[in-house]
Design brief:
By secondary structure, the chain is of the alpha/beta class. About 35% of the residues lie in helices and about 15% in strands. Bound molecules: phosphoric acid mono(formamide)ester (CP).
Amino acid sequence: MTNLKNKNLISISDYNKQEYLEILKLAAEFEENPRQEILKDKVVASIFFEPSTRTRLSFESAASMLGAKVIGFANPAATSIAKGESLHDTIKMLSSYSDIIVMRHSIEGAARYAAEVSSVPLINAGDGSNQHPTQCMLDLYSILKTQGTLENLQITLVGDLKYGRTVHSLVEAMCNFNATFHLVSPTALKLPSAVKMHIKRAKLKYYQYTSINDAVSVSDIIYMTRVQRERFSDPLDYEKVKDSCIIDASTLEGCQENMRVLHPLPRLNEIAVDVDTTPYAYYFQQARNGVYVRQALIAAILGLR
Ligand code: CP
């Protein structure tokens, strides 16, 4: 195992291809044996300035199953931040109270800033519309499990490609594996040029569409995303695009047998419930995989694997 001890995970490009593969291998070991007391003298701080179900609870579950104590908050209004305490001072305190910090924040760049202030390693659990590297690791794990490889796949990304931090991280990561990208979104939510630059630099192919129907038959993975109301400053702009990329079971007719639908969740209406009972739905198993991948990350960053 490469030495990931004390290595922050703020952006997916902070780790390299070999490190992704080592984390995925370790995650598979934790999936076999998720309850081990390897963190019994460790304290994990879980601090969430933005709402979360999966990321926060799977991190806390991952740490608890390994015997760690978990401290933190999911509601900053109940902390001294409500009295005006800065992020700087909050992180200073938390790094005195814990061995590792997991942080979600609404401001892009907040995780990088917090990592500079912290004296213990920090994992970005999502910063605004920028990056969500641990979701990306579990997405890679889910793709590997369903396809048997990460190499040479046709990856279709659907929905809010502009603000979707999970999409931004996944595109960057899949550029290491010779992917071809199919980008499906309304024009207003196209993948930002800065993210497309990673595809261009890797000399990989991408195609842009406004309808999912044009990409279904070629896809190995269809990665659905929610149009995120909370990222729009004008509610009318949200209304215009919110129903633009929806799939149901009939949309998937003609897909390849190996194709799987992923979604970081939560979903609204972009995946109809009739998809859940098709062999293509993988989003609930994907969320479950988050526990093992986050166990692998905590154990590697704390130098215990
Ligand atoms: N996938 C994800 O980040 O979900 P939560 O917002 O519930 O953590």
